[in-house]
Write a structure and sequence with these properties.
168 residues, alpha+beta
């Protein structure tokens, strides 16, 4: 399988080594996700990049909308997400990554990256959340630990915002 297709589609189960067994790679991925291994790897890589002065600390902040598949709309509405009589959602938990917007059921990914294109802060919100109110929260999540002694870095030198041109 050529590299371009593998990057686009991932590795099919049949191409994984037999040592992993059926579904073993997925089980490892989910376990590492649950116990914070992926977060620790990401944090260690950022700390090493900062120690080697590979982070420029001039940040860009932007967001993108991700549409949910039509199957996500069929979830049962129980508890806090039940519709109220006016047709809207009564109370939406703050940590939900899906919401209703003009484009349907969507989520929004807010990202702060440094000029070398390394992500330093990631936040997922519901699709109807605005970009401006989330800016402070995205910048507040920047935290790059130091390999040696000292407090973690959490403040970029400069912040550049992606602004879309106004439509006439």
């Amino acid at each position: 399988m050529d590299l371009e297709r593998r990057v686009r589609t991932g590795t099919p189960w049949r191409d994984l080594p037999a040592d992993y067994g059926r579904g073993r790679a997925y089980d490892l991925f989910r376990r590492w996700q649950g116990d914070g291994t992926w977060h620790r790897i990401f944090t260690a890589l950022r700390a090493r990049a900062d120690a080697n002065e590979l982070i420029t600390w001039d940040s860009n902040v932007d967001s993108t909308v991700c549409r949910a598949r039509q199957h996500a709309a069929g979830a049962r509405k129980r508890g806090a997400c039940r519709r109220n009589r006016s047709g809207g959602v009564a109370t939406e938990p703050a940590d939900h990554g899906l919401g209703r917007s003009r484009g349907g059921l969507t989520g929004k990914l807010h990202l702060a990256v440094e000029q070398g294109q390394k992500p330093i802060s990631i936040m997922i919100t519901a699709g109807q959340r605005g970009d401006s109110p989330q800016l402070e929260a995205v910048l507040g999540r920047i935290r790059v630990p130091r390999l040696g002694p000292g407090r973690p870095r959490n403040r970029p030198r400069r912040v550049r915002l992606a602004v879309e041109p106004r439509r006439a």
